UniProtKB/TrEMBL annotation:
Keywords, alphabetical: Membrane, Mitochondrion, Mitochondrion outer membrane, Protein transport, Transmembrane, Transmembrane helix, Transport
GO terms (BP aspect): protein targeting to mitochondrion; protein transport
Cellular localisation: Mitochondrion outer membrane
Superkingdom assignment: Eukaryota
Chief localization: mitochondrion
Lineage: Eukaryota, Fungi, Dikarya, Ascomycota, Pezizomycotina
Name this polypeptide is given: Mitochondrial outer membrane translocase complex, subunit Tom5
A GO cellular component annotation in the UniProt record: mitochondrial outer membrane
Family per record: Belongs to the Tom5 family.
Membrane topology note: Single-pass membrane protein
Length: 49
């Protein structure tokens, strides 16, 4: 990142990285929420059947 002679990152690459990071955070939060709800869903299905 700070090595001499290394190219600068363009604004488009920075924006693409920000979008990718945002999507990653959203996917992690959604996955965590689904994992939190999964025991309740399993209990519901067991009682329903």
């Amino acid at each position: 990142m700070f090595a001499p002679g290394q190219e600068q990152i363009s604004k488009e690459e920075i924006k693409a990285g920000e979008i990718e990071a945002s999507q990653t955070v959203q996917m992690v939060l959604a996955g965590g929420f689904l994992l939190y709800l999964s025991p309740f869903a399993v209990d519901f299905v067991r009682k329903f059947l």
